[in-house]
Amino acid sequence: MAPNTLTIAEAHEQxxxxxISSAELTQACxxxxxxxxxTLNATVFRNFxxxxxxxxxxxxxxxxxxxxxxxxxxxxxxxxxxxxPTTGCSNVLRRKDYIPAFDSTTxxxxxxxGALSLGKTNTDEFTMGASTETSCYGVTxxxxxxxxxxxxxxxxxxxxxxxxxxxxxLGTDTGGSIRQPANFxxxxxxxVTYGRTSRYGVMSMASSLDTIxxxxxxxxxxxxxxxxxxxxxxxxxxTSDVPVPHYRQALSGSIKGMKLGMPKEYFIKGMHKDxxxxxxxxxxxxxxxxxxxEEISLPHxxxxxxxxxxxxxxxxxxxxxxxxxxxxxxxxGDAKDLIDYYHxxxxxxxxxxxxxxxxxxxxxxxxxxxxxxxxxxxxxxxLIKRDFDEAFRKVDAIIAPVSPTPAFTVGTHENDPxxxxxxxxxxxxxxxxxxxxxxxxxxxxxxxxPGFVEGLPIGLQIMGPQxxxxxxxxxxxxxxxxxxxxxxxxxx
Length: 492
Hints:
Elements: H1 8-16, H2 22-40, E1 43-46, H3 48-61, E2 72-76, H4 91-94, H5 105-113, E3 116-121, E4 141-142, E5 145-149, H6 155-162, E6 168-173, H7 179-185, E7 188-191, E8 211-216, H8 219-229, H9 247-250, E9 259-263, H10 273-288, E10 292-296, H11 304-319, H12 338-349, H13 352-365, H14 371-391, E11 397-401, H15 417-421, H16 429-433, E12 437-444, E13 457-463, H17 469-483
């Protein structure tokens, strides 16, 4: 088995046992990136020399006390790393590469644990998209079928993890941007409770919705990374003092007696039949483990997408104001005055999707329309959260599809932004409720239907109450051990 195909837990045991070195593990990932990334386009910046140098230092010390010591990973191109270009995959920063003078809290914590950053992964521009097609570096492709998207916005991180270019990757999830690409690429991805992990040093899209989390090859690996990066951060006022559990200790526990809810609103007209079948089939696994599955209702689900696409662009319009070409980023010449300068910088620097969301958000927040749109959306957001609160009084967790279909082909929604927004139909409610949710592989497409082929990954979404990552990881681990879908690898 090539070292780069190992999970974090497996690699840690081999490093401790001196069966491999960190330098060998890092080099194996580098070789894999150089072999397949020309096809996938998952990475946008490579930091190989520094990673190898750090790996050799770790080998010299020979201490692998932390499970992430000597483990190579990739970081979504919105996380600041000191001295490493960070562009948000936008021309507004790429044309004059922004090089941070500081580390994000998450990358700092990983560095302290001995993890090794190999570079940056592709993302939709400033995380706005569901396919990485809005990236200024071009689309990332699915490792299982390179005619298809890897999902978004953390498509680069998902594709790189699934293709064994790294042992894990960092992503961000605002409305499904970790879970959906994990679903498309056949790996595991976690959206945490809002406030569980620090967003300091991570470029913001929608500040009340953004979370950061890992994409990994197994649930155990998710637990390892989460234990390292979670917790209160004095630099991020939105993080909470809620204690961080020892997530790995909970994984082997029984789920016997647990009640799982399956919302009827998540099985809609137009969803792919193999997606529905694969998700419904998971009930047999859970029931054989002693859990019960019952149908529940989340009645305001139908309003989730329109609500999200008022609140999110409203926050985008505020967060994107900092990219003005004055302090850093893209600049332009021949402007007639300051207003013209702003116009030129942002016209040339931003892509269509970013401009679209800025305009929608600015309109929704304007004096004449604030009450009609933004205020109403916040009221509906409260109702969506209330749906989850009431459901969790009856069940321990909720299971559902991640997306209505497997990965779609590149260009499918090129001229239809509304259709692209509807790809988030099952993944935006959790963001507005602030609850944790993850995607774990639960099968593959079996039939050839218009637009789809056999052998595309399908993911199961598991949702829990706020701060209950421990619970959903326990449930996901029980499923993973019984089903073993995560062990399949794409052929590249």
